[in-house]
Amino acid sequence: MKYLFFFLFLFTGFVLAERIFYLMGTYLIVDELEGKEIKLYKYMKSLEEKLSHYMENSEISKINRNAGVKAVKVSEETFEVLRIAFEIAEKTEGFFDPTVGSYTVNYKMKNLIPLQKAKSLINYRNLVLNEKERKVFLKKKLMALDLGGIGKGYAIEKAYQFLNTKKGFLALAGDMKVWGHKRILAIYNPLNGKILAEGVNKGDLCLSTSGNYFRKHIIGKEKNVIQVTVAHQNCTIADALATALFSAPEKVRKRIMKKFPKAGVLILFIDGSIYIDRNFKDFFEYLILR
Fold first, then answer.
1. Which residue ranges form the domains of the chain, and what is each CATH number?
2. Highest-confidence range of 18-27, 31-40, 58-67, by mean pLDDT?
3. CA-CA distance, 67 to 63, in Å (whole number)?
4. Which pLDDT belongs to residue 18?
5. Distance between CA 200 and CA 161 in Å, rounded?
């Protein structure tokens, strides 16, 4: 068993044999990949080139430019992540919504529209997916996609499938996956810059943490939740669900959690108190809360 302090959202700690790459605007840490690190990086870079709204020639950017105009033919990967995103948006009552790009891209990044207009355009129901032709269409002009709440988790999950190795470790910003071995994992506490929780995984798992203290990119009223961490077998689901649970008010959050019975949840509140469910604990051989 290898020892690694992995702080979700903050890459500091004791890095042993891991390799680090710059990807998707952050750092990718990889380990135990049987010499496939460069092959992995190239594959994940190809996903970024399709899914990033920061890249003008990406498929997501093409869809955004053609919002309200025409449908865009996309790759299997782009269509797949958008299909999953749509399904999770429905299950989370829109508190995860891939069309948040009207706010994050067209308002915050490009300053193309005023705030209220940007918010009014966020509606995943206006995302049209034509599976037969593999085309994507945003119904209204100045709508935009932003996969920041699901893209990194999806990239990790696809990389895991692509590698097909007996064991491995991948960490990308607030998302990580470990399989085929056990290691000590730690979750960052943004209130004091220390460790919130640490433990040893019982088996394969994904962890995804969502918070608004760095980028201020998640829309919602100010509330008493500062960070949400989700444990799940699938990193795509973990990523999007963490975003939704962070965004949702308490009553809706409880409702959403019931729809994902295989997920574990750890919530850090602004006063330092913690909520952790049985499912989250069950992903670990032991888990210590600091």
1. 2-44+151-289 (3.10.520.10), 54-138 (1.10.3980.10)
2. 58-67
3. 6
4. 78
5. 23
